[in-house]
User: Fold these one by one.
Assistant:
Number 1:
Amino acid sequence: MPALHIIPIEGIGEVRPDDRLGPMIINAAAAQDTPLMDHDCLVVTQKIVSKAENRLVPLDHADFTARAEIIDSESVRVLRRRGDLVISETRHGFICANAGIDLSNVDSGFAALLPVDSDRSAHRIRNSVRAEVGVDVGVVVSDTFGRPWRHGLTDVAIGVAGIAAVVDLRGGTDDRGQALRVTEVALADEIAAAAELVMGKAAGIPVAIVRGLEASWFRDGSVRELIRPAQDDLFR
Amino acid sequence: MPALHIIPIEGIGEVRPDDRLGPMIINAAAAQDTPLMDHDCLVVTQKIVSKAENRLVPLDHADFTARAEIIDSESVRVLRRRGDLVISETRHGFICANAGIDLSNVDSGFAALLPVDSDRSAHRIRNSVRAEVGVDVGVVVSDTFGRPWRHGLTDVAIGVAGIAAVVDLRGGTDDRGQALRVTEVALADEIAAAAELVMGKAAGIPVAIVRGLEASWFRDGSVRELIRPAQDDLFR
């Protein structure tokens, strides 16, 4: 079985509203001698997607009332509050802290909201790569979320194009020929987590290539596969 | 910044009680021309660790009463029950389904319990590699857990040796010079998730090498870093 390679893409530079991320990624990858290939999966951080899509809003970071108002307006339901921390559900169905609003790595006086439709953001990058260089890639838009019970943040998928979000092995057999019960793997979340290992918060690397994934995982996908229906969820 | 490589180790073969995993991994890695190197991180699935440590117990898979009794005996606290599904806290502090008891990939008539002390399991492999071939590796013992809110399973760390479980970037600055607020990254969980991308449930690959991680992340670590204190947790 071949190895998997996770290749950081450097030199993307500062992203501004209405920048086209596809060409920026293509050029930066080519400039470092790792041109994109079929069945690569690009992982692109939410931050540059939100910037390119002009999802920055003015916010005085010290104004906690204004901050709370933005969080409320970006939430459809609040699960828990403690002090300044709000755990809420976004319009996309994500449950996360502060509605995914990002204050770091943004110009002082601004906050970055989540993309309106992050699957569409991923599709836009995928389509751009196909149109510009004729290469068929998967795209995962990633963000950094906390989790209950476990300390520390991990990167997860908030948008997906051209690759499965969940790989459903239900009904397969394990290596002893026994039926496997529960084998729906959150592929896009694991890809996002893997990419984070080369991106790092402070290193200014907003994109990575994950190269060597199973060819059969590249299909139409949506981040909606990763949202657990409320009636199946014991922790709301 | 260099790429990260995730290399599956094939040919480990069937693991039996009292097998020494360190030499088995060393030999299988050497046999496929990827001998272990300093600052490699080995990811080893719980299943072979539990087998080597003789954590198999007899269980008729159709006997739901016996199954429930084992889950109870492996749990310190039950958070939720629905039908056959129990979400409970193990002695290690992990919150997971069915106390982490594993029925797949185990001989029919048996179940695999979690290692008693999975940090110690990781240390044993790390020490063995150092003693046999003089190479300094990190070790993550991984298992497959569900999560609230998000559909699909991901691999997480249940034991750690020689590498940080959480990388604490608190107090650093981002690439715009602003103070970062929340930047404790669940490194060992992201490593486990990355490794799962080459292991796959049905492929019979129980170990992977993650090569190219930051040298500074290799230090004394413990899976206890990943357990969120109950008083900080809004979802118990």
Note: Chain B touches chain A through 76 residues (CB under 8 Å).
Number 2:
Amino acid sequence: MADAQDQSKSAAKKAEKAAKMAAAKAEKAAKHAALPVHGGKKADGGKKADGGKKTDEIIGITVSKTDNFSQWYQEVVLKAEMIEYYNEISGFFIMRPATMHIWNTIRKWFQERIEAMGVEETSFPMFLSQKSLEKEKSHVEGFAPELAWVTKAGDKDLEFPVAVRPTSEAVMYPYYSKWIRSHRDLPLRLNQWNSVVRWEAKQTTPFLRAREFLWQEGHTAHLTEKLAGEEVLEILELYAGIYEQLLAVPVVRGRKTEAEKFAGGYYTTTVEGYIPSNGRGIQGATSHCLGQNFSKMFDITVEDPNDKGKHVNVWQNSWGLSTRVIGVMVMIHGDDKGLVLPPRIAKIQSILIPVGVTAKMSAEDKEKHLKKVDELFFTLKKAGIRTDVDLRDGYTPAWKFNDWELKGVPLRLEFGPKDAAKDVVSYARRDTGEKGTIPIAELTTKVAELLETIQQDMYNKAEAAYAAHRIRITNWDDVVPALDAKNVVIIPHCLVPACEDRVKELTAGRSDESADTPEGQKAPSMGMKSLCVPFDQPEGLVKGETRCLSPECSRLAEQWCMFGRSY
Amino acid sequence: MADAQDQSKSAAKKAEKAAKMAAAKAEKAAKHAALPVHGGKKADGGKKADGGKKTDEIIGITVSKTDNFSQWYQEVVLKAEMIEYYNEISGFFIMRPATMHIWNTIRKWFQERIEAMGVEETSFPMFLSQKSLEKEKSHVEGFAPELAWVTKAGDKDLEFPVAVRPTSEAVMYPYYSKWIRSHRDLPLRLNQWNSVVRWEAKQTTPFLRAREFLWQEGHTAHLTEKLAGEEVLEILELYAGIYEQLLAVPVVRGRKTEAEKFAGGYYTTTVEGYIPSNGRGIQGATSHCLGQNFSKMFDITVEDPNDKGKHVNVWQNSWGLSTRVIGVMVMIHGDDKGLVLPPRIAKIQSILIPVGVTAKMSAEDKEKHLKKVDELFFTLKKAGIRTDVDLRDGYTPAWKFNDWELKGVPLRLEFGPKDAAKDVVSYARRDTGEKGTIPIAELTTKVAELLETIQQDMYNKAEAAYAAHRIRITNWDDVVPALDAKNVVIIPHCLVPACEDRVKELTAGRSDESADTPEGQKAPSMGMKSLCVPFDQPEGLVKGETRCLSPECSRLAEQWCMFGRSY
């Protein structure tokens, strides 16, 4: 599939290079000066001796989210210690503990739910043979250009080169044929957590597009289309749950058009997100019904229980959710101070920082105060709130505030002698900056409430932004201005692939003012592509009457289709 | 490193081929006859209509563990549905849900404990560059012959081929250099769960030696040798705990000799297991102190906190445990009926099977009885016992018994009208075959107790076998006869690599009667290699006096060293 992003490729590459160089330069300078660029917890610098103010500037994000969204994003994931660029091989990223905590939280949530559905875990080899791959024609065509081929072992050439899996349909389905002998073996539902490799020629971006990424891939087989279809939606709803309930990210549920569906599949359902900063749509996760295409190619049949002697091909699904979800969350919630994490997936939900412990204080008073801080810390931990306390010597409270803001901790708790005198703890919300105090007697209940409020408010804010920028349009001339105003659009469409291609061309490079690419450079504006046909269809489309909105299309509209510039 | 197993390679290959062909043949026959070879839960065959007896024979293991250990093992892992051979590419195996449950139990147990130690999770790319790899000379020499090289992406040659990680030292340590700037960044402790690829030329065996395997790899950096050394042992004790507490497998803790240590490391500690059926030792898991070798090559230094201005190289460890543990467990506990699982890692701990429900019973009585079965099932589940109930129609109880025995379920519970009349449930232990009854009123407590007893008895039995076959020897002439009698030996040794090599030669192919290879074929007997220097040293070695036991060595003995034929 062609991608509108190709247009801005060279500009994008330049931008990434520039961002990387800037980051490398800052880091080198910092290493020599022993100053923390990453805001490392135990980094040597940033002490008062060096002048707190100067350090504060260095650890922060150097560009604003509004001015240069792409560089902002790259700095956030790097400086919040989520990602490290793998300089040895381009297009690969290292997932650091801050990332793995989020991924493991998602994994646990999803695993529990699919286990309850009867999905079992498996682990297939990472390599696939040319022969298996070639069984399904559209499938191999979809993935062939991005396959990484192992051709040598040690210093010997392999007789038959093997490819690293880009997805495991062709790895697994020969065994579905072997294991499924009777309708009693159905449904067969297997899932695996692994990494896959797609050697993208396109621009890579941390989390969103990488040559290797972590994901789960579920592969199931059912007796009927109906049973398969029910599961497709059940899984899609779990994907929506990960976005909405864990990551506080709203999504639109829908079906991909023929042009955008999975290579070799029957139909694809999707949850589609939206990035307010550049008005782009982004595919969140997909749950595919493969129909009987693969079961025919891989010979997966059972005897029809209702018609003895007759063999039928099974109905198959595959569904996957990757670490991309984390990138979407960062893009939506982050701000100019850095990462903003929804409390449910934050490893540290609240950070407790002693303040007002001045040099003038007596050693005794200081000890007494820090003892009280310790008590508060243990009270919170005992209540099951994921809390840390920052007792680092030699750092100003202001430096610590910035450091934890950069890392996105949802709630900051401050405790100084003045708070102690009033039996309160002061707090600051990461998402809104709102400040207040909590009586110590109510600390654990109020903190838990605040965290839930933050989670909900973050979702509501993102949902409001999405709702306001999902525009139903019935006049073609309004389309490009709507895109330029950072909207995605919902239009009546014929759903014919050729028409989609033409729509992409018609909406590309037409605005006078060039648009912001995800890489933060001015470039010719990108054409829009179809994101999904939302399940929740607006009113107003009359079948057999309403026409496809494309000015060059003479067909009738089939459904409302969501289009947008996209990742 | 050379391996004594090479001797028997061609015989072994033939044996594997024969076993595979036999399995394939049986399976093909079964598919055509619609009979379950794998004892599949919902397989079509095995019904009374086909004659229970005939089916019972087919689903079972066709060779005895004593007669042909290697074929027995391959049948068990295949028929108990733990493993499927990946026929597309040789040397690779599919891990099925029965395996993944065990691996996930181990993973959870270990993960909780390393998290408590402060180890954080990470995920590095699966590829490494030639340049990184070459930094540590012995390391690259150790792994180069087994590296899988990606040389092409799509149809384009890569400018710089990349290798799939065989282990991640060379992938990770460039970033340790970047992230560790101060002694305050120490200890840095990261772990990842992934798969690695070592393109073995040797015979592969499910779990024990595969070209790709799942494992965890921990990589840590410390300020001092002492701190690194403490962690090495702490992790080794966790590895021993996985074997002893979860898998009911006894191990000997010790240190590898220079000849057998990790390529590029400083010293290697190990837990060593023992397979009674062929008297072979098997390496269980290793925890390495890498010393400062890698930190020098990768430039990982900090300023010495006790000597300002002076830079010191950090001390590093790496430690890994793989799915091999599962193979060791199968080999030790399995019997001629199939798998025998220790209760703590069994997905199904007890299987409840209604019996005595005959055709003569009235529909009403039958319903009443099955209702009671259901009640028992829920009582057990509610008590947290992992239980399933086998209500499959059309299978004889005898067929079901065999099926669950094949799959290793630790405890079978039978409930028939006679049991109901006496308010008891009958049981049969998988490990000993012991039968008895449990009053229904005491069901949950007694079942829980029985499961713990089974766990303990399985361990004790294996421990007794290991203890009886770990022979201290001080007379060289006793060595080969001891090996032939399926022992591993503990001898005074100089620990010099050249002497170890010679000992291997001296003990190879010398017995009149050829020994049993792991592949179940008669072949020239394998020489012994050093397994470890046990931490628990026997009495009787006088330093400066006791001589190395090798008849061709004139050196003094350093320590008691455990040698054996081995995997």
Note: Chain B touches chain A through 69 residues (CB under 8 Å).
Number 3:
Amino acid sequence: MRSVSIIGIGCTRFGERWGSSLRDLVVETGIAAIEDAGVTGEAIDALYIGNMSGGRFVEQEHIGALIADYAGLSRLHIPSTRVEAACASGGLALREAFLAVASGYADIVIAAGVEKMTDVSSGVAADALAAAADREWECFFGATFPALYAMIARLHMRRYGTTREQLAQVAVKNHHHGHMNPIAQYHTEIKVDDVINSPLVADPLRILDCSPITDGAAAVVLAPTDIASRYSDTPIRILASAQASDSLALHDRRDITTLDATVYAAKKAFAQARLTPADIDIAEVHDCFTIGEILAIEDLGFFPKGEGGIATEEGRTSIGGDVAVNTSGGLKACGHPVGATGIKQAYEIVLQLRGEAGKRQVSDAEIGLTHNVGGSGGTALVHILSR
Amino acid sequence: MRSVSIIGIGCTRFGERWGSSLRDLVVETGIAAIEDAGVTGEAIDALYIGNMSGGRFVEQEHIGALIADYAGLSRLHIPSTRVEAACASGGLALREAFLAVASGYADIVIAAGVEKMTDVSSGVAADALAAAADREWECFFGATFPALYAMIARLHMRRYGTTREQLAQVAVKNHHHGHMNPIAQYHTEIKVDDVINSPLVADPLRILDCSPITDGAAAVVLAPTDIASRYSDTPIRILASAQASDSLALHDRRDITTLDATVYAAKKAFAQARLTPADIDIAEVHDCFTIGEILAIEDLGFFPKGEGGIATEEGRTSIGGDVAVNTSGGLKACGHPVGATGIKQAYEIVLQLRGEAGKRQVSDAEIGLTHNVGGSGGTALVHILSR
């Protein structure tokens, strides 16, 4: 398997993009990534597109060919593959693109992710998102995503003493980071009291514990490391790519306060990269709900199990802390267009490793990690990137 | 890239499977394939699942993890990836699984395809299928899939003299083949007059020109060729795997009587396999409508452009002809559970190459081809298999 690097990146502004359709968003970001990499259409060997639910959100499947078409590549007839693993669809597209280059089957490959979520009512959107859980054994009985994560939060609080305030600190930190990110959906700073007094969604989770409904797209261009310097002055190496699965339904898990898919994917990724969690300077993790970030920083090995809440409270995951987590603002403040999130995470890590992250730049960042979760943990993807 | 072989196969009965859910169908076929290959769960490195629209048909996304879960593999946390390219999703799963093994990243990989289509009304199903076309520029203006293929048929008839009877001959042949296939949805033989007098769908296509709405699943197990004989007495080599894309909308095509995606994928596949169309003994091609098979046998290079109709009429694509096309009954008579079709095609070719196809066995078949199309030709996949 060959070494693979990221030679170009693009990301749209995240938010309610009512003036842009799904195809507009992905073409906007694709052009940005191609220009950043300085490649021509003719050089591109394949596309991988992460999208969770074009079928439900915009009544469009066959997203791979659609994107190749609207990117002006259909005349070249290049292979274009859509992959889906719910909210981890973007991370999965990055992994499949990585494997295509690593295997030697392709040289220049684009991994993109997109979701257009605001063309439907919030009820329809919530129902579409619920299709990431087990429809027959969870949703049919009334479970929604906030409810599933609320059950996880309750048990985590009871077993480990995680507090309501510590959950809120995740949102406060991510809004602080996000307000320095030009593409973020929200640029408002918030306080712990704002979170605790915001409307209840599923006890103990409140509206400011939840990531929003978002339109957006992101893209990265991959190449074999040995030719990456032809395209980029600062190619970023992908040191590891790992994927793991788990039961879709929470009730089939060994323990709902740990996402085993994250644990397995992280172990594989650290082994591939020959690194440990202590080596990671920056991480974009899957904070679909505030409890999600606490699980992530524990399950990835940054902090012992049960100590994610206190670590957050002590600022150890803020810019300047032990590991800067979600400098983009995370899913919470940057926004969560589900199919795009995994690629946006890579976009942010590349910006940081290049030293192009502006006001939120982490000084001397050398190694970064992305962590993208599907559903309540049925799928997890972990990538490790290096300057 | 390593040589890859198919060491196990499974396929459910196709039809209206009201007693089986999506997960039931894919587990049924997965167990059959694993038993056929004689592998254990622990040996499996990865799953690739083709599914077009679980979101629309059964309100379930995150199909990869769901299948790993219900196959009893979630405790092993193996990677499971859903891919989608409309009606070519199955062929795409086969290709991604092939690349995973060929690249050396994985050894034993399962490629499966599934669609559960009869839980919704036929109107909802037709609308879900229309998501394979360009929603904004075709469906919005009233186009349905039969209408798109009807336009292709009309121009093909006008330009090349293809007759109404020749279209019907495709259905007659495929029903004849299908009535010998135990898994087929239909076991009725039909005559040319039956087709011509069947209810009109989109002129000139009538109901017996159209593939049906079907539930079903199929799976194949892949391994590196150098260890395939440990598992199977008759491993079948995958000599080539190729994928190509084209514009989603018909009106953006160079010529609607040729599917350029098929032409490009076939060229790549024949080059990889170092073979020509004349070397193919059996082929499973994408006859979603009767005109689809005529396009396919021309675009794959079996017959010159415009001569697909006459070749069919002369029996050159029947069992015993130049190339036996759709011995399974094709999409028309065997059925078309869209995400499963590409894998069922490989299942049929493997049965034939093993000499296990019963009454419809093609004598001395050595090389077979599968051809799977997404939408009206936005994606095409071609695989070449050898005994």
Note: Residues 338-354 of chain A form the longest helix (17 residues).
Number 4:
Amino acid sequence: MSERNSLSDLDIARQADIRPIGDIAATAGINAEALELYGRYKAKVDPARLDAPAPAGKVVLVSAMSPTPAGEGKSTTTVGLADSLARAGHKVMIALREPSLGPILGMKGGATGGGYSQVLPMDEINLHFTGDFHAVTSANNALMALVDNHIYQGNELNIDPRRMTFKRVLDMNDRSLREVVIGLGGPAQGVPRQDGFDITVASEIMAVFCLATDLADLRDRLGKITFGYTYDRAPVTVADLGVQGALTLLLKEAIKPNLVQTIAGTPALVHGGPFANIAHGCNSLIATQTARRLADIVVTEAGFGADLGAEKYMDIKARLADVAPSAVVVVATVRALKMHGGVAKDKLTAPDLEALLAGVDNLRRHLRNVEKFGVTPVVAINRFATDTQEELDWLLEWCATEGVEAAVADVWGRGGGGDGGDELAAKVAAVLSAPNSFRHLYSLDLPVEEKIMSIVQEIYGADGVDFSVPALKRLADIKKNGWAGLPVCMAKTQYSFSDDASRLGAPKGFTIHVRDLIPKTGAGFIVALTGAVMTMPGLPPVPAAMRMDVDDAGNPVGLS
Amino acid sequence: MSERNSLSDLDIARQADIRPIGDIAATAGINAEALELYGRYKAKVDPARLDAPAPAGKVVLVSAMSPTPAGEGKSTTTVGLADSLARAGHKVMIALREPSLGPILGMKGGATGGGYSQVLPMDEINLHFTGDFHAVTSANNALMALVDNHIYQGNELNIDPRRMTFKRVLDMNDRSLREVVIGLGGPAQGVPRQDGFDITVASEIMAVFCLATDLADLRDRLGKITFGYTYDRAPVTVADLGVQGALTLLLKEAIKPNLVQTIAGTPALVHGGPFANIAHGCNSLIATQTARRLADIVVTEAGFGADLGAEKYMDIKARLADVAPSAVVVVATVRALKMHGGVAKDKLTAPDLEALLAGVDNLRRHLRNVEKFGVTPVVAINRFATDTQEELDWLLEWCATEGVEAAVADVWGRGGGGDGGDELAAKVAAVLSAPNSFRHLYSLDLPVEEKIMSIVQEIYGADGVDFSVPALKRLADIKKNGWAGLPVCMAKTQYSFSDDASRLGAPKGFTIHVRDLIPKTGAGFIVALTGAVMTMPGLPPVPAAMRMDVDDAGNPVGLS
């Protein structure tokens, strides 16, 4: 076991022996014609020029139990597991989301794995990377400028400014922009209306970007986005406005996946990053498929716990292409189990076997859920320095009793390039070579309310679902407008199986309250909102930006 | 003379024989360590790693007479002249501004020269390029999110939300955002205040970006930006908030100049793009200086006519480093001269010698102005297909009478790589080898009102200047706050020497009305506003975006 030392993630990343990205690409089998360098250590891969067979690699989906607010280390485990699989001789590629700049300036300081399991160059990936999010921001805001201009210039489409469902976005944590009034200042400055800004990762264009199968499909999906309604309450789409071509043009370079490397030199495609609440929360389909053309095993991640991220991966993303996972890794930590067992957040580092026992029901429900999709789960116990051997042994023993493969991983401290993930990799590889029989949870033919019912009953363990009056009205609209065949994207707290973040463990006897339904006709899903969902975060009293700087040599300071 | 054919700029650009940017860099003498590729045809050049001598190249500044709304072809002339100088055996580099995305989606469709005098790849440069403007947008909006968060979290700095002088920005033509109210929605959503958005090129951070001498100076200037005032009316700076480090971090890659090539293969640094009204309107100082390290002749451009762009180049940019021009090219067109001679805009293509004679006073005043800086002007007559030989001959003759070198250039139709600019290049080269004695128009020690007086009298030909009551109050504040030693940046219509766009030719007997003064303490100048200045453009009834698309092969459509 390694002690977590005093080096920051940025320190470790900068000490790493990073290789020119062209070397990584060559090793990954990417032909020069398909590679477009962005600086020394980043590149875009053009799937249309890639000389590689059709997608065939097996997918390992990294998910988690219901997390603590600090997170259980899914990205770190994804990176470390891939490094360990590579170390064992497999041809591996990682597919991960791109970090959002807003939270980096706010709380997090960085989002590219941690310790010795990071993707590099962490500073560039965490800041502007190759500009994909900026392209999404531009496309989103171009759409809204064009919409408001259409209204200003005479409103031929009869758009009702009070029924707009699409907002402008910034990749920034900026609470002051949540609710605004625009178009003030008189007749020359536009038409006043109530509006608001979301963070870029909440844009439907980000979701579209991540679900498109190619450039033509991207264009088609952009055209299908409903941005508002007419005074007659008919939906108005981007295609009605005629600007899907311009939006596609703004995204044509961004849509190519970004190649980077881990500290251990494993190739990683880091591309796209939709929210895990009002969207599906995983990297672009194009990146996953590109990775499946190049590698035998693709390790990827879905946001939040398995009740949200994994379910959406299975029921939304895996309907669009053959990307169903052959194994699901469920990341668990001793500290999260103790939290679910009733321990206060400031006491999670103290040894407490009883709390582990009390909290493990949460993990059990996630594992049983994964099996409902016909996929075998593997538990990755992400080790922390404060974990005792007794606690780890107990948890391994519990997994064995449950009939689930499990391994302790120290990919943060020792790295997957070291021996920190060898055992986990061996267990995952064994599951990959066994047969499985993937299935979606529900049929798209079911009415929307029944799709929601199957998720809340079978995955969350709820008794049922309660629709608010607005949600019932929206259900009727969805049927009327012909959108009832879309899958459902649940927006629920990640901290509980219920829609109440304080109900930890494996709650029973609860109802899920759907307060509204939002049709995302471009992305191709119906968002079911349960409780309040924050689509524009705020900054904390002392933002991470206060610590950030550039040293005299031009190197970054304060990303961690 | 070439007929302007039916090929669009995009068609011509796509037919061009573009070379890998590494080849261009090698020819330009850029060592591999200093080059960071961005795709196949774009690269960033890191001045800190550049193995080249100190800046020594001579600068040719391309400016213009007072233009028509369509523009007189300064960028096209800049590109073509550089190509012609290269064709004549000179070691040449271009330094140009980056285009702004907003106007491209609105009116223009592209801003990288035209015809056979373009920088390539025109589609990428016109869309997201290497993301510099996105980085400026991010830094600007990070600052404002941090400011509003500071107010929300307790407002330790005592910032008066009613006296904020800094806005959020988007690189978009979005009139609905000109005047907004933010922070609505109750105590959890921030503090309500009146606000607005500018286009990114109007951000003071863009001006700072373009005037910084290096990364340390960038950080220093960012810290000096005044974003508002306290309740006690004391200025509050970015350094007071303590986030100049974070803003520098967000700009550390963007600040490296971008290398591209012309159709003829001449290397061009295209970098930065401040407004020419409320800012100084030329590419980054770092790009100009980098070009001067690599080439014997640097051809660069300043926005608007010579009364604005050239004056600001001389009195703002050329005070920060040794970038004073050794020659100034004044672009003139037969059509613009006729417009100044009283011809209606829809009649400019009809031959009209009398109108030429009546309009040429405008050109004369610009030429005499250039000489006031101790620099020799050269007239570039940018040829249009509708110009008659008689008109061109008359204009050449007139220039000879005035004692000014002049040449007809057809760099649009024949290209500088062809013979379209040979004569112009020869005249410019001759001026470059003659001595000159550059001087600024005014001393920084003069009071602000006297600096303004010298510009309006000596350059504009006005009788004097009239300050509004608010401007007079601001003058007192400027003195009180110790900013009186800064140079002045005039914000005036480009269409007239006066502040009334309809007064064409060389008006006399007028007064310049300064309605407000805006201290830009980071950029280091005082903006003098005359008349209304639009800092957030709107979209036209049929935006250029309506024509834009991607074809089946992924190629851009509708940029022109």
Note: Chain A has a mean pLDDT of 95.
